[in-house]
Amino acid sequence: MYKVVIVDDEPGALSVLSQMVGDFFNFEVIGKFSSPDNLVEEIGKLRPDVLFLDIHLGSKSGVEIAKELYQKRCTTHIVFVSAYDQYALKAFEYNIIDYILKPVSRERLQKCIEKIENTFSSYSIEQPRPQNGAGQNDNQLIRFNTQSGFLLVNPRDIVFLEADHVYTKIVMEKENSHYVAQNMGKILSLINSGNFIRISRSYVINTRFLREVNRTQKKCLMFDGSSEVGLSITKSGMKTLDTFFG
Asked: Using CB atoms within 10 A as the burial measure, which of 8, 27, 49, 189 is most buried?
C-alpha cells in the first residue's frame, strides 16, 4: 500500500484529487493539507511514499517546499500539480517524479500512478525499498536501466553523476563510466544516501570522493581512484557543500 499526502490551497481541488487518488488500488491518502505552514514537519512525521503538491500555496510555494524536503534528504516522491507549466524545469531540480497540469484528468492521473509504481518496482528483488529517513546498506546493489538491459551498482562506488538530457552518466571508482536510461532525480531517489550532494544542475557528487573545493574557480576536485576530475559548482551548490560540512 502506497501512502499518499495531498496539498492544495483550493478545498474543491483538494477534495477531488484526494478522491481520485484514493480510487486507485494500493494507494491510501493519509493526509490532506491546504496550507504550507509546518508542512515539512508534517511530512517528516507522516513519511508518505508520495506527495501530490500544488505549486501556488500563498505564503510559500510548492517549489520552496520541495527544496526544503530535498535539503533534508527526504525520500518521499513528489508530484507537482499546477495550472501553469512554466515552473516545470525549476521543479525537476528537486527530484520531482512527475508534473501534472490542472485540471487533472483521470487519464493523466493514471499515467502518473503508473510512473509511481514503475519507480518503486525498479528496486531489485534483492534490495527492499528503503524506508523514509533510512540509509542505504553499503553492500546493497541498485538496478539501473540501460539501453541494452540493466546495470547493478553499489552506491559507494559512484564518484559522481552527470545529467545528459533523459540519460545520466554514472562515473564509477576505477571503472568505465556508464550511461543509464533514468534521469538524475530518479537515480537520487533510488540511491537514498546522505553522501550525495547536488552541486549544480548537471552534477551530483559522492562526498566520499571529494578532495578539494576551490571557491575562486568555483570547482570541486573529485578523485576516482586513478585520476582527479574538476567539476563546476554553482552558487547554490557551494552553499549546500558549506551546510553539509558545517
From this structure: 8
Q: What are the CA-CA distances from residue 214 to residues 152, 209, 219, 221, 235 (Å)?
A: 33, 15, 5, 8, 12
Q: Which position has the grid cell 527492499? A: 128
Is there a contact between 63 and 94 (Cβ–Cβ < 8 Å)? Answer: yes
CATH of the domain at 50: 3.40.50.2300
Q: What is the pLDDT of residue 124?
A: 35
| Cell numbers linked to 103 | 485540471
Report the run of H or E that residue 183 belongs to, with start and end.
Answer: none
Measure the CA–CA gap between 236 and 133, rounded to whole angstroms.
Answer: 24
Segment 35-79, tens digit of pLDDT: 999 999 999 999 998 999 998 888 888 888 988 988 887 888 899
Side chain identity, residue 163:
A
Number of domains the chain contains:
2
The whole domain housing 186 covers 142-244
Contact 80, 98 (CB under 8 A): yes
